[in-house]
What does this fold into?
Amino acid sequence: MSAMRPCYHEAMTATGGTTEGHGGRDRLPAAQAASDQSTLERVASAHAAARQADWDRLVDAFLTVLRVERNLSPHTVRAYSCDLADLCTWMEREGLMLGDIEHRAARRYLAEMDRARYSRATINRRLSAVKAFFTWLVESGHLEADPLSVVSGPRQPRRLPVTLTAEDVKRLLEVSETDTPVGLRNQAIIELLYASGARISEVAGLSVNAIDFPQMRVTVFGKGSKQRIIPLHRLALRTLHEYLTIARPRLLTSADRPTDALFLSTRGTQMSADSIRKMFKQALSSAGLDPSLSPHDLRHSFATDLLDGGADLRSVQEMLGHASLSTTQIYTHLSVGHLKDTHARAHPRA
It folds into this structure.
């Protein structure tokens, strides 16, 4: 509230009022006091609107950098936008301006989320977005120093990824009615997710030309629009070929305009990641599997099965599109076969 005191002084001066004393000669008439109060409210509202406009301008510029220069996906940019909007709401509630944010204020923000029982993952994600914004504010010259450089989020327990067994995957693939265009499409999507370990957003964004049948591979664009090539096995290619030659042309008849999207909805438009998630949940229900499973768990299964089959970590890292090998190493904790092979190669008495 201290930031509003200069506005109060300006308003009183502008209306000819005085802030001196409380005697009869200095006391403002009731009508004048009401007028001054109204002026104060207008000035305060104008200042708040100006601060909001400055905030919106900076956030829009930051989001443009993420979208254009860093090539982040629309989903990721939207997540940054939501997290920064949450910070803005908290700042307004606390009466803070951008220049008021320092490490103590940031820790109060984290503490409030903790009291509201947000998960540690959510708290760390929001903090990551805020810290990225403040780093950009420094780099672009809007701030002289980063007040959040010393702030860290709560520690998260290292959880092992959830995987599906080979029997689970088989049941998941068998529920699709492959005599219908939608059923054949669904089977092709699930088969591709498990065969490639691709993220659901990557599969949703594929075009028809992404599948290279002669070379037996698929080209996907991951985080930051980074391209990677993933081999595909014959069974997945056969299912994809059936979908492309039988189901996709029938789905395309409902389209208003031509499209090169690989997976189409019943309206002939490109399927979104949310649509694929919904389809996956329905398949889980039909197969009688754990409803908490997600398409991303097929990615975990892909990595674990490769390591169990003798694949090296570097190859799995490249196929998953991990920037760091340490991210891929977590799958070694799930792969008993990989651990046994490592032990047999490394231990002198093995």
In short: Strands lie at 211-212, 217-221, 227-231. Confidence is low (pLDDT under 50) at residues 1-26, 39-50.
